[in-house]
Structures are given as C-alpha cells and as structure tokens.
Amino acid sequence: MDAAKLKAELAAEQEELRWSITWTALTGVGLIVGLVAGWTGLEAIVPWAYGLAYLAGGGPAGIEAVRALARGRLEIDLLMVLAALAAAAVGAPRDGAILLFLFSLAGTLEERAMGTTRRAVAALMSLRPDVAHVVEDDVEIDRPPEDVVVDALVRVRPGERVPLDGVVESGASAVDQAPITGESMPVDKEPGSEVFAGTVNGHGALTVRVTKTANQSTLARMVELVTEAQAAKAPSERFSDWFGQRYTVWVLAGTAVALAAFFALGLPASEAFYRAATLLVVASPCAVVISVPAAVLSALAASARRGVLFKGGGALESLAAVDAIAFDKTGTLTRGVMTVTDVVPLAVDEGELLRVAAALEHASEHPIARAVVRYAGERGIDPAPATGVEARPGRGIVGRVDGFDAWAGNRRLVVSEGIDLDADPAAHEALAALEAAGRSVVVVADRGDGGASRLLGFLGVADTPRPYAREGLDALRREGLTRLAVLTGDHANVARAVADDLGLSHDQVHADLLPEDKVDRLRTLKANGTVAFVGDGVNDAAALATADVGIAMGVAGSDVALETADVALLSDDLRRLAEAVATAKATRRVIRQNLGFALGVMALMVVATLAGRLPLPLGVIGHEGGTLLVVANGLRLLGRGRAPS
C-alpha cells in the first residue's frame, strides 16, 4: 500500500469519526435538554429535545440498518433502533433517548478504538522522510523517495531518517532500527551493512546505494502485511461475526414470541411492549461481537510496534496454543557467521600465531579463512608477507611465510606434511578438547630455520550463539514452553556445543538432518501437541510449512521470509519471540474474559427482563456499559507494544 492511498483511507476514516462524534454530541444535547426540561416543568420542550436525540442517535443507525437489509443482512443497529422506537411507543421516550445516546457513544468509542490500529500503520508509513538526497555526479538532488530508482546513491545526514532500503557504500554510523526491528540499541553500520527505510541515522553521514524502491521497502511491506493481518479474521472473530448475524434474527424472533407470551399472560399492552423493548436491548449481542476484534486488532498493532508481524489473527491464536518450539540452528540460534573462539599458541606467542595464520588465509574466501583474517584484524595484527599461497581443497592452505614453508588447515593437512600431532601430549590434549567442544580447528605449522617442521598452535573456529539467544530461551521456558528442540544439518558435536552454550540438553538436539529429516521430526513433535518452527524463512520453507506455526527470524529486508512465515520477527533478538508468545497468550486470555463477561451479563439481563425485574434504563446501561468494558479490556493489549528500555 502506498503512502497516498493510506493517507486517503485514513482521512476518510477521520472524517467518518468526526461525523460520528457530531451525531453523538447532538444526541447527548437532546437527551440532556429533554431531561432538564422534564425536571423543570418545561414540558413543551421535551418532545423537541428527545426528537433531536432520536434523529441524531437513531438516524445514522437506521440508515446503516437499511443498507444492511438491502444486502440481505440483519445488523445490531436495527435492534437498537427498534428498541428505541418501542420505548417511545410505550410512553418512555426518555429511556429510548438514553439507549440511543449510549449506543451512539459506544459506536463512536469503538470506531476510535478500531481506528487506533490503522493510525498505528499510518504512523509506520510516516516514518519515511518526504525527501531523499540523491547523489549524482557529486551533486545532491532532493527527490521524493517514490521517484528514486534502484542502484541510486542517497546521502543520509546525521539525525535524518533513511529514506529507502539499501546498502552502505561509504561512511560509518550507528542507526536506530527500533521502528523496524524493535531493537532497543542503535546498530553500527559500515560499508556493506544493510539499512532500512524509516530508521534514524546517528552521528555519521552515510552514502547508501538503494536496493529497493519505495513501494518494495521493508517499511512498505510491514504496512501492507499489518493491514492485511488486520483484515484477515481469526477463528474467534469469524465465530463472533457468525454469532452476531444469526443471533440478531433469534433476538427479533424471540422478542416477538415473548411479546405474544406477555399478552397471553394478561399483561397490559404498555407493560408488554415495555418488557419487549427491554428484551430487545439486553439481548442484543453488541459486546459479544466486539469482544474478539477489540483484542486481536490491539495485539496486532502492539506486536508490529515491537518488530513482530503476525499474518492475521489466526496466526496470533495459533501461537497462543503452541506447546513445543523447534529451532533451526545456523542463522537462528547462532549468528550464521564463523568466529574465532579459541587461540592456543604452542611454539610461538599468540600474536605470531595469528600473524602466520592470517598471512595464509588472507587469499582465501572460505568462511573459516575469513574468520581468521577478521579476528587478526580486530586485534591490530597485520598478516605476514606470504608467497606461493595455494589452496588444498578439503584440507586447508599452504604457502611461504617469511621465506619458510607454512600450513594452515585441518588435521589431515599437517599429518600429510609429516607433522605428528600426538608427539606432544599437551598439543594432543588441546586439540582433542577443541574438537570435543565442537570447534572447527585450524592447525598452524611451518618449517623453521633448520628445516624441521614445528607446530605453531591451534585456532578454534565456531558459529557462536546470537546475543540474547539464551535469555530468549529462558523467557520461553517462563512462558511454559519446556518442549524445545534444535533441528540442524550440522555435525552432532557442533550442535551439542551450541546447546551447552544455550542451556539446552543434548537430548533436545537433533543433528545431521537433511531438510526432509527436519520435516519428519516436526511431524513426530506434532503428534504430541501444537508445534512452532523457527527458521530463517528461506532455507527452511518445508519445515515452516509443516509446523502449526512457522516463524521466520531476523527477516527485515527479506521478501521471501515475510511471505513464507505465519509470524515474522524482524530482528535477530530471540527475546522478541518470547514477547510474541506472551502477547498471544494474553490476547487469548482477554478474548475469553470478554466473551465470558459479555455472554454472562447478557444472559443475566435476559433472565431478569423475562422475570419482569429489570427496568429499561438499567438494561440500557448494562448493555452499553458491557460493550464499553470489553472494548477497554481489549485495548489494554496496546500497552504491550511499548519498546523496552
């Protein structure tokens, strides 16, 4: 959805809300004037005042009821108008005016409440600046983001919002991504880093190469998905709609039967019609119908503000029912980037070990080689001069460093060069410990002055857990989710090492799995309950589809992931998943509270009316008051969308 269309829709809704407020105000004025005139003896004014209340409060509702009838539907508006007219017919226009005022007020507040989620979406769209500073031939030209094409260069000054998704070409800064990913801390950006439209640049100027047009940006996709999610009805919402439509027919038919019964019991016409009017009011299912959407829409808006997108209320309700969660490992529980975790120097010091290893690995694009070079660079160690560097596929890399033959690779490489790894007990023990811990070990060796080979040391490399991953898993356990599993294609030792870091037991880890094996494991888990699967949304499409709830994690900027999952976590913070589960469970509780309260109050008032012990004014207050209470209870969920401190 583009900004212009969203603004037009929001403007139309705002206009409707203004008219709704106006009609409610006029209804209230008529009611108050009528009450005051009646109390002060100005009887001539009373009919005109109540007439204003009936026209302002009943007119719009009557028009909506007629429109619904033309479409073959019976709506609650019809019940309210008929109840007010019945009250006037039995000589109680005051009670009818009170009913219309409270019904109009409830409708206005409901309209404003439901518009809150739309305004939240509009607020998301408003995050994108109106101007992008496009750089052409070293000259900045201000253009609307809608007119900027892919591959254009855009300059983002300190303090400005990023206008479009892109990749940093030059400059360094920290960017506040909270509006998109929900991350509470700014994220460092440098050349090659991805940035998203709507995020706020920090202290440094950035030049960004645009990768997506305005309508394809992550921000635009968020708006589209949240809008679609609000339009997609959850099972509970579909039930309340079904209930409301059919129940309206039952109420009209039941009121007619009750009226006939009242006459059969010998009640005077005025009392029979009065009770029938009261029955129309108290039996109307306004509170029941609004119970579910008030909660679901509030939860969807709150979650979107924290970087969690649900594909509609159905996904929200399904997540609340989950009792087991399976995780992909690489890129989900771990960073998906190899990192040097251990440095074990033997014949030289740590600096020299890294200097030789970086010299050999500098020419390689292998992930382990990149990890070694990056680690050395982070510690200010420059690679030694190297010549004749040659890769040995599946083993490592060889070359000459400082004029001597040198090797960096796995166990098989150095053994083939005549180095005995078992000759030194300390070296043997260190190597065994690294391998047992699930590390990929880089063995570094060379041939020194005397031509004898020597073992310089070991580097342990691993894909390390994401920040807050353990905290996120602990938070899930606090939500009652103890059935946690890791499904990975990685080796068992590696997977178990990650499990140890995250506080998971080894029996929760299933390693060496092909994609079809993951699907089989998920089916086994599903046999004992409702299962969610958390993956990257791209490589785990089959598993995401097999699970009851597919959750894609860290997918800001990924169209594929946003499309495939039921729930999308825009950041890499696993704590967001626990928050999403908590929100889903809170929504389920609120829905149950609302439905239980609405149905209970309605049943109580119907019984009291049939027994002749409920006056119409109390019925009006009970009915409309109940509607306002369930709306307010649902809106409490909006508070769950506040960003963490």
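Next protein, fold it too.
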Amino acid sequence: MNKDLLKIKKEQEKIILNNTIKSKHLSTLRLILFTILIFLIFLSMQYSHFLIKGIFFFFSLAFIFLVIKHNQIKNSLNKAKKYVEIINRYLNRTNETWKEESEIFPIENHFLNELNLIGKNSLFTYLNFTTSLGGKNRLLEEFQLKEISLNKIHHRQDAIHELTTNTEFILAFQEILSRIKHIEKTDLKSYLYFFEQKEGKHIVELLISLLLSFFTVLTFTLSLLTIIPFSIFMGLAILQIIASFFYQHIYQKEFDAITNCTFAFKQLLSSYQFITKQNFKSLLMIELQKQINNGLTILHQFNRLANLDSYRLNFLSYLLGNLFFSLNFIILFCSRKHLNGQKIVLEKSIIALEKIEVFISLSTIGLVKEQHCFPKISSSLAISISEGCHPLLNEKDCVANSFYTTKGINIITGSNMSGKTSFMKMIGVNLFLSYLGSYVNAKELEVPIVKKIFTSINVQDDLVHGISTFYGELLRMKEVLDFGRKNNQTMVVFIDEIFKGTNYNDRIFGAKKIIEELTHLNCIVFLTTHDFELCDMNNITNYHFTETYHKDKIIFDYQIRKGRSKTTNAKYLMKTMNIIKKEGSKNENQSTEN
C-alpha cells in the first residue's frame, strides 16, 4: 500500500476529529446567539433604546460570522470524510471487500469474460476508480483493447507514473468530481444536446424587447416624477410581461435545455479549474490539460448563463427582470452565442476529463500492490515474467511464479486444483494490463506487441443457437486459425482443457491437429490439459504443477515446473469426499500417472 495514502488518511482523520468537535461547539454557540437575538427582538419591541439596537446589531454580525465559519468547517469536514472514503476503497483492494463493488456488464467478449476482466469480482471492479458515468464507460471501452500500440503504451506509462506519484491530486480530483450531483448516473456528454438546437441569434427580437424595456423604464421614471399618468406605465408593463410569457412558451424547450445543461456544465467548473492549475510533466497529461483548458472558457460562459437563468427561475426576479431588462430575450440570445463551434471543443474537454479518470484507475495497482512494475516491450515474440502474481489475489496469499517463453506451444499439465488455469490467467491478466499501459503485478515483465489475444477457457453450450460445448470450442479454434493465417498475424492464445466437451478419442485427435496447425503460426500458446498424450508431440514445451501429501492431506505449492506432470489426484479427491471407499495404504492415495 502506498505510504502517502496512509499518511493522508491519518491527517484527514485528525481533521475529521477536530472539525467534528468544532462543529458541535459552533452549533451550540449558534443556538445561544439565535436565542439571544430572539430575546433582543422582543426587547426592542417594548423598549426602543439605542443601546438595545446596538447590541442587536453586534449579535447579528456575530451570528452571521458564526454561520459562515460553521459552514466552512462543515465543508472541510465533508471533504475530509470523502478523502477517507476514497482511501478506504484503496485499502479494500488489499482484502476481499472490494468485491462488494462488483458490476456485471452484458458484453459478449470471450476474452474479457474468460480472463475475469469484466463482470463479478473482475479486474474492472478492482481497478475502477472513475467517478462519472462517462468515465466508467470510457474505462470499459478501453478494456475492449481495440488497439495495441507501442507509442500509446509508453505515453500512458508516463502519465500513469506521474499520477501515481501524486496521490494528493488523485484524491482531490475524485473528491471534487464527487460533488457533482448524480455524476455516477449521468454521462456529461449527454448534455451536449444543448448545441443541437436551431442556431440563430434573433437580433431583431432582442432589439424590439430592449426597446420595450427602455420605454418601460422611461415611463416608470416619468410616472414617478408625475410627468405622465401612472396608468401609462402599468399598461406598458403588462404588455412587456405578457410578451415575455408568450416568448418563453414559444421557446420552452430551449429554456428547459438552458436550465438543465447550464446547471450540469456549471458543476464541472471547479474540476476544470483544479486541473488547469496543475504542473503536469508527461506529454499525455499536458495534452489532456490543454483540452480541458480550452473547455474552461466555455464553462465560464455557461456559468454566467446559469447565473442569469437563475433569475428567471425566481418569481420576483423573473417579473422585475422581464419588466425592466427583457430577461427572457437576453437569456435566449446569450445561449445562442454558445452554439457556434463550441460543441466540439467542450466535448473534447469532457473526454479529456474522462481519460484522466481512466488513467487514475489504471494507476490502482501501483498504489495498492507492494510488487508492481511497468512492463518492458520486447521486439521479439517472447514473454518473460519474474515473480508474477494475479492482481485479484491478496499478495500475502498469492504464490509468485517466474516464467519465460518464446514463440511456440506451451502445454501445462497437473492435477486438479494444482494451479494450471490460475497460472494461465495470471499471465493473461498481466499481459492485458501491459497493453493498457498500466502497472502489472510482477517484479519484472517483458511482453511483445501482438495483434490480438484469444481465449478458449470457459466455453459453454448455447441452447438458444443450438451450439454444443464442443462445437463452441471448434468455433473458437477456427477464429484463432483464420486470424493467424491471415498475413501471419502475431497473437497470444490461452486454451484451457482443450476439447473437454467431447469424447476421449475425438479430443486427442482434434487437439493434436489444432496443435500441429498452431505450430505453423506466429503465436505464443498456453494450453492446459489432462491428456498426457499431447505432451509427447513434437515442437511443444512441457510445464507442470504438482502436489505432495502429508497425513492424508493434499498440499499444492502452485509453482510451475518444466516437464510434464507425473501425478494425478482424482482418485484421492473422490476418496476424501467419500464418493468411493478408502482402500489400501496411504501411498495409494498419491495417484501416479497411468
């Protein structure tokens, strides 16, 4: 766990403790002052004395000062609580409680689902520290891994490293975004429909309304001076109010858009201002900051428009504003000024904000894992990992593995529950993180740039489309072979229990044919199996996991070793579960290769 996070948590907990005490004291003082003010009001009603009025004025100022101070302390208290809440979410990544945040997305992607990258208890849940709905959707989009680029990886590593070393920014940024109402349910880009209204400044309408307002003010002034009858002013005022009501009715949709959109964009202002004040050094963060700075000017305009629109929403200010200043006409005229060429700039700035959320999420492993690094990108088709762990496992429980392989077929054998599939997923998840530009859970990792990653790990039958498990596996293998044969594309393939959905003879025949085809392609293959016949094929490399037995207990060390497996444990497991009767000596439990 990042020491800065723990340090900041202690500091914020002290702030919470101190401000909670201060808040209670100020609440008591406010109540006392309020009681005194009520008493002074009653006293002044009976005794109109200068001293009483002076005391009342003094206590009124003291009460106002106390209210302001109390609000400041409450804001500081809420901010500190949010900091601690965010830090606790990071701390949850060191135990199992992070799984309570799981979300399931209906995405048809074998690679994402079978490596537990999305879905329940997935890597997405583990990494996700986005605040906005748009940020979460963008992180999910990044998980599609549509492009694997060396330049993109290096730029992201620089940005993510910079963020990881600035925990104060990460926490402050998340805290500021959390202040925006319903941000977790709202995609801020959805408010860009504001720019899709019919353009036009309607200058003629504005000039007429301003002219009416001028005459209204003029007649009001003249009537006060008794130069003209007051009835003339009243007649013109009624005409002005009726015109403004009709105008609002005609353009009600535009006024509703102004109210909804300006309020949403106004809330973004503080986050934009915060980002533009940062001194970023990585090229990617500087570029994102520049885009946000471009959007800041537009947000200032929206902020002024939102303040203006707030007068329209208040009955009294609505009447006075439209009577003397043509408020409705001015609001609509000002809003249309924002339509010309502003949408693209603002949209890019919102996307930049979402990308910062994504990069903060991709820095999670660097913040919470003791063992982490940025992977090196190899120019050759090879994978080398030193003390690699699965990011979703607790570090204290995870057994690290080191491994090296080049182009070719890696067949992994071993007893049930010995760690074959977990090892394969560990490689797959860290490979995926590498291509995202993120930290990986390893001491060292070197990976190649490939065009695609394929999986055939948890193939299920599809009753709706009439596809059996075996046929589903065949479809996966066809996809792999077709892709690899096309222009000799580079790829990494993970296959778990190949052709488990069919009978023994067909499985061995089919598996051998697939392995023979894969040896001719430009790929690295990880293939687990219980079929030892596959271990004797040419052009493959064997690895295995094993176990030991102690006092009728099975012990796995989860360490990968070179060579093929020499043990099985199905008979032992069935005996320990009383599925079959225990017979013979202890040594018979330690089933060996048939």
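About the second fold: Confidence is low (pLDDT under 50) at residues 585-594.
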